């Protein structure tokens, strides 16, 4: 039986106890390599040398914050870009939308969603996005304020009916293939294929960007 692929995770937080707690949760699951960085600057360096699959990044750090570090890391990636999960301790954090638009694959609240962290990491590697349920209302509220006056009808028309439906559900806050599949009565595999097709057609980077695009273009209210 082939050995499971080792998942490489870089944990970035200026609080040593937080880093150690996250490391213990991840290593307990097995088949996970965990590196640590205590600052945004160190994270940028470690991302180059350690080539993590997933980076768990504290948003608020002195000197270089998580958002700045993530942007530098993603810009510098010459091969496969790492997935970045942002961490915040504040449910009212005003940087939620900015981080997601900049390329974050998920947004979690410290001490609330980290108990099932390894499952979140695995789903992130599978292309799913995770936003804390406590942060979702703020994310949707801010997106509603940022809607385009006129949707990009040409881009919307370029999508198939199936692609528009999955995009609309992503934009409305259903982030997993299983959730979307249950609504549409399809298999998760079919949903995953339709999401990937929509991402390619629109020239986007991942399903988080697709969800944001759908919300900006009002697909979460107009559907297909």
Could you state the CATH homologous superfamily of the largest domain?
Response regulator
Helical stretch count? 12
Main sheet strand line-up: 2-1-3-4-5-6
Shape, please? Answer: globular
Kindly give the count of domains.
2
Largest sheet: 6 strands, parallel
| CATH class category of the largest domain | Alpha Beta
Low-confidence segments: none
CATH fold assignment of the largest domain: Rossmann fold
Helical residues, percent: 40-55%
Question: Strand tally, please?
Answer: 6
Average of pLDDT: 84
**Structure class:** alpha/beta
What percent strand?
5-15%
Rg from C-alpha positions? 17 Å
N-to-C span: 44 Å
CATH architecture of the largest domain: 3-Layer(aba) Sandwich
Elements, N to C (H/E): EHEHEHEHEHEHHHHHHH
Task: Label this structure with key terms.
single chain, 224 residues, alpha/beta, Rossmann fold, 6-stranded parallel β-sheet, 12 helices, 13% strand
Question: Which helices and strands, and how do they pair?
Answer:
Blueprint: E1 7-12, H1 16-28, E2 32-37, H2 40-50, E3 54-58, H3 66-76, E4 83-88, H4 96-102, E5 106-109, H5 117-125, E6 130-131, H6 136-145, H7 153-158, H8 161-171, H9 177-184, H10 188-202, H11 207-216, H12 219-222
Task: Characterise the protein shown here.
It contains twelve helices and six strands. The termini are far apart. The chain has two domains: 7-141, 3-Layer(aba) Sandwich (Rossmann fold); 147-222, Orthogonal Bundle (Arc Repressor Mutant, subunit A), CATH 1.10.10. Helices cover 51% and strands 13% of the residues. It is α/β, with parallel strands linked by helices. The chain has a six-stranded parallel sheet, sandwiched between helices. It has helices at 16-28, 40-50, 66-76, 96-102, 117-125, 136-145, 153-158, 161-171, 177-184, 188-202, 207-216, 219-222; strands at 7-12, 32-37, 54-58, 83-88, 106-109, 130-131. The model has no long low-confidence stretch (mean pLDDT 84). The longest helix has 15 residues, at 188-202.
């Amino acid at each position: 039986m082939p050995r499971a692929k080792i998942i490489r995770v870089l944990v970035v937080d200026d609080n040593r106890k937080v880093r150690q707690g996250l490391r213990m949760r991840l290593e307990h699951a097995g088949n996970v390599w965990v590196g640590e960085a205590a600052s945004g600057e160190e994270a940028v360096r470690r991302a180059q040398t350690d080539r993590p699959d997933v980076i768990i990044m504290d948003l608020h750090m002195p000197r270089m914050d998580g958002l700045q570090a993530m942007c530098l890391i993603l810009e510098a990636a010459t091969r496969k870009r790492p997935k970045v999960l942002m961490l915040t301790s504040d449910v009212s954090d005003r940087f939620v939308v900015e981080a997601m638009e900049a390329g974050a694959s998920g947004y979690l609240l410290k001490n609330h969603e980290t108990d099932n962290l390894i499952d979140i990491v695995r789903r992130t590697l599978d292309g799913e996005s995770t936003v804390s349920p406590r942060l979702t209302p703020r994310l949707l509220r801010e997106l509603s304020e940022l809607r385009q006056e006129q949707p990009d009808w040409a881009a919307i028309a370029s999508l198939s009916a199936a692609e528009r439906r999955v995009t609309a559900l992503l934009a409305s806050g259903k982030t997993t293939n299983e959730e979307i599949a249950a609504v549409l009565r399809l298999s998760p595999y079919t949903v995953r294929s339709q999401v990937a097709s929509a991402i390619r057609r629109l020239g986007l980077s991942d399903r988080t960007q697709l969800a944001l695009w759908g919300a900006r273009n009002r697909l979460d209210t107009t559907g297909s």
